[in-house]
Design goal:
It contains 10 helices and 10 strands. With 299 residues, the chain is of the alpha/beta class. β3, α4 and β4 form a beta-alpha-beta unit.
């Protein structure tokens, strides 16, 4: 079994974060001295300089509403910029929203076909009226080392110390637990209302593989095929692909299980960590994590 680089007390990543915070504090001061009120463009430039990977030419990470020239009064960081999140950000005096997933209902955040849609128009008009800007931070936050979403989720669950050396998506626990117990513990830590689980509640689980966010069929099936993986955790997946495969694998006699958190819940803690990271170089404007509400509930 591979052992994690994470030990009792401060993790290696926490130490790296601490060192980066010291370095970025100077950068943040420089940003503040350059402009008492930075613009959206100023903050984005600092993100590009600080994320630690080259900025891609082809990426969904861009301003999807508003403009780079808008002076930033405050930053709201969120998993998904729903209208509710945007309204809460505005009420809290935050006019720059940095989000992970689309704002306008498509991965590319294009609005073709929505030009006369009342929901789109209401949301876009609210953003315009309140002089807000919305920036997508998806590709490069995943490319950050460690992956910002994976690190935040592992930290929130308390799983970092059980992670394999090569990432924060494979975990081996020191003792096995029943699937039902593991699911209840995850639901409590992540405050999930509508988790769904496929598999025997009494299944013994010691090795877990996670695919935070949307689980692609081939990638999730690959995880299922690993002989030592007892449970696969995803945010969401097509039921006629991933869920059906999980059902068939179990019916075929495999001791496997699938835990479906919901997309927002499965990456939310990664953007909570992003807000902390941003504070290292945006000390002259307030930064707040604004959680997106889990959309589902059980009657």
């Amino acid at each position: 079994m591979q052992r994690s680089r994470v030990y009792a007390g401060e993790t290696m990543e926490q130490m790296n974060v601490s060192r980066r915070a010291v370095l970025l504090a100077g950068a943040g001061a420089a940003l503040g001295s350059a402009s008492a009120t930075p613009t959206v463009g100023d903050v984005i430039d600092r993100i590009k300089e600080s994320v630690g990977v080259p900025w891609r030419e082809e990426t969904v990470d861009r301003i999807v509403a508003g403009s780079a020239a808008i002076p930033v009064k405050g930053i709201a960081v969120t998993m998904m910029a729903t209208l509710d999140v945007i309204q809460r950000a505005a009420a809290a005096g935050k006019n720059f929203v940095i989000k992970h997933e689309p704002t306008f209902y498509l991965h590319q955040d294009t609005v073709q076909g929505l030009e006369q849609d009342p929901t789109y128009l209401f949301k876009a008009e609210f953003i315009r009226k309140h002089e807000m800007a919305v920036f997508r931070f998806h590709d490069h936050w995943h490319a950050h080392q460690p992956d910002g979403i994976s690190y935040g989720m592992a930290r929130e669950l308390g799983w970092a110390k059980y992670a394999d050396r090569d990432g924060l998506t494979m975990f081996t626990f020191p003792a096995a637990a029943r699937l039902s117990e593991l699911a209840r513990e995850m639901a409590a830590k992540l405050q999930v209302r509508a988790m769904r689980v496929v598999g025997d509640p009494k299944l013994s689980v010691r090795r877990v593989a996670a695919s935070w966010g949307a689980g692609g069929r081939d990638a999730v099936i690959k995880l299922f095929r690993m002989p030592d993986v007892d449970a696969v955790v995803i945010g969401e997946g097509r039921e006629w692909e991933i869920v059906e495969y999980a059902q068939d694998a179990i019916s075929a006699g495999q001791k496997k299980s699938l835990i479906i958190l919901g997309h927002v819940v499965s990456e939310q803690a990664g953007m909570k960590y992003c807000a902390e990271w941003l504070k290292g170089f945006t000390s002259n404007v307030p930064v707040e994590f604004v959680g997106a509400e889990e959309p589902f509930w059980r009657p």
